[in-house]
Structures are given as structure tokens and as C-alpha cells.
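Entry for the shared binder. Reason: the reviewer on the internal report wants the predicted structure included alongside the sequence.
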Amino acid sequence: MSLGLALLLGCLQGLTEFLPVSSSGHLRLLEQWGGEIHPATFFDILLHVGTLAAVFFVYRALFRDMTLALWRVLRGQSKLKDESHARLFVLACVATVPTGLIAIAFGDSMEAFAHSTGFVGAMLIMNGFLLLGMGFLQRSQGESGGRPLEELNVKDALVIGSIQGLGIFRGISRSGSTITAGLGLKLDQEAAATFSFVMSVPAILGALVMKMDEATRTGIETHVLVLGAVMAAIVGTVALLVLLKLLKRGRLHHFSWYCFAIGLAALLGS
């Protein structure tokens, strides 16, 4: 893989990981429409690690508070029930359980379906309807808002984690589907978005660990891997800040029309 292609894929990953249009779906369509690209799975995950760095940067204050709260709990200075930030970490791990089970059970078969641009196009259209649902839920909340992050519970985490498992369908946005699920559970917009990105941390790190054996079999030079991930981190930081601003303004669902358009193009071109 050339450095130019790696940077292009990193830029695409950074844009589409946070904007609710499915990074995995776009990477697959680029592969199908741009020729024999075939980015290695390990490189794909490294791009996700790059965007994970963007999450750590944007939410750095929250992760600092989570770390300090966990340290107090582990040292016996405080109880878990009294530390909302430590509970958030635990709930993010709980959400990863159904995500992992779905990926293990259906990941290989869904990856086989994803070789069809028609399938990816259909999933992108479905993603568009999910985003319209997000807009409806935002309007339903109105000025009354919803539950804050402190009221998140185990049931919420399991439901949102299960929805996160839909990310195995290339074309379904992880961020879009999980934020929509959070809104559907009556969380306020900030809480839904925050938990969506916090729980992406253990999910992505788990996928990286599972694919570490592929690190020496990618056939891609180390500097190309690293620079692709760095590009994803830089572009991802900007995209995440834009997403949070659009979500606050209630405009994120407008990406549904983009999903409908590119999904239809994929269907017609299959």
C-alpha cells in the first residue's frame, strides 16, 4: 500500500468514524470503486485506533476524572456507587459484552455479505432512516431534555452495547446508531453522545488485541501504518468537534440525505 493511499484512507476514516455515515461502509465502497485496495484488517483497526486518540483528546477531562475516580475506588478511599465517573467506566465495559458477543457470532458472515456493494448500499439507506429517527427523538425531547449521564444504568448499557454490535454491518454508523439508541432510552443529547464515544474505547482496544497476530502479516511498511493512523487522529478530532456541535444544534439527522444518496448509488452500481 502506498503512503498516499494510507493517508487517504486515514482521512476518510477520521471523517466518517464520527460523522454518522459509517466509516466501515465508506472504506469498503472505496475499495470496490477505487480498484484492488484491500486494506488489511489490522490496518483498518489501526485507523480506528487513530480516531480513538481523537476521543481521548476531545474528552480528555472526562477520562482524567474517570481515572482518578477508579484510583480512589481501587484504593478503598471511596465506594463505586458514590463515584459516577468510575461507574461510567464500568458501564462502558458492560456495554462491550453484547458488542463482543455479536461480533464473535456474526462478524465473519457479515463480512462476507459486505463484499457486495449492494449490501453496503442497503445498510447505508437503513442508516439514513436511523438518522431520521434520531431527529424525531431530538424533537420529542424538546426543551425538557432527558436523563443525565449520572442516571445511566446497566440496562441502558446493555441495550446501547447491543446496538453498537450493529457496527458489524458495513454501512451502519456506530456513532449514529448508538446515539440514537441513547436518545431512545430518554438520555439527553450530551449523555447519549458521551457514552457512545466512551464505550468505543474498550470495543476498539479489544478488536486491536484480537488482531495483533496480523501485525506482521499486513505487508504494509510500518511508517505507512503509523502515518495513516496519525491522519485518522487529526481529521477525526476535527470531525468529532463538528459532530458535537451539530448534535447540540439538532442538525445531525441531515446526514440521512447523504446516506440515502450514496446508498442508492451503491445499489445502482452493484
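Summary line for the report: DSSP finds twelve helices and no strands in the chain.
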